[in-house]
Amino acid sequence: MTSSTPLTGQQEDILEQFRRQVFQEDIVREGDSIGTDDLILLRFLRARKFNLDEAKKMIKDAQQWRRTVAGVGIDELYNQLDVFDYPGREQVFRSWSMFFHKTDKMGRPLNIEFLGGCDLTELYKHITPEKHWETIVTTTETLARKIIPTASRAAGHDIGGVFIIVDLKGFGLSQFWQVKSLVQASFQMSQDYYPETMAKLAIVNAPSSFTFIWSFVKPWLAKETAEKVDVLGSDYQDVLLQLVDAENLPTTLGGKCTCEHAGGCDLSGAGPWRDERLARSAQATNDTITVDTRTEPSSSSPSEPTSKHEENHGSLVADGPSNVDPGTNTPSDDITP
């Protein structure tokens, strides 16, 4: 069942019960950053096949994780870290390239991950494992809070979720052993705490060793998630171009986009979310100029903003139950096989 599938009468009744009970039992409160509208609640119900008790447990566990993750909670982490602009971001992307970039023909945001370029030894020269994990967590939160809602507004309808493209060009077993724990923890976090946010996953440039790698990865995925995965070899361009306009697809994946003006597609953050971000920034600047022309200058210093983001509520992403318990700790990666 997809997010666009109409609800049956029975499912409508279950949604109403779910909404009422999560508020009555103080699992969710109005204004919680997890989101309280029907689109959010339906993600948890769909992930648990509309089993009311299991969906309540899932959202309760998600709320507990959100309060405790990284020792500060997701709201503080999100306010502290802007995934589009943080110190050392360019150096991090050279060894761990994972970025949002425009949308597909259905309006779904693209999340592009170049795992073939992963090098944890080099990565950890520029960022600690703990801080790197925090960027992964905050990226997933940004997907749920900002990327999906903004893309839905731009498309004029609920786009359902993200389209992930994983490029394995140059990826081998030695790299797999390096990133295995991180990838597993990312899938597990997404399935448990950000359900039904992945619409499609395309794996391109799959190496000859991928059958072996997939035998490790597939058990981490819920059945519903695995069904959304397409594994492609090197002849993937035509398939991607059926789904994504060439102007929106980076040249590295067979498209025409370079984002040359913004430092490259990986660093540009191009998409409706960036357009909205720039519009808000311009409006804030105009408002400041207007206020300055109407008031006397003050000798006091302006207060610091409470968040690095423009709040915009509606999310390595997947669906359904996972087979492992992520806890709240940084995943440990052994960088030797």
TrEMBL record:
Residues 296-305 have a biased composition (Low complexity). This is CRAL-TRIO domain-containing protein. Residues 282-337 are annotated as: Disordered. Residues 282-292, 325-337 have a biased composition (Polar residues). Residues 74-261 form the CRAL-TRIO domain. InterPro entries: CRAL-TRIO_dom, CRAL-TRIO_dom_sf, CRAL/TRIO_N_dom, CRAL/TRIO_N_dom_sf, PI/PC_transfer.
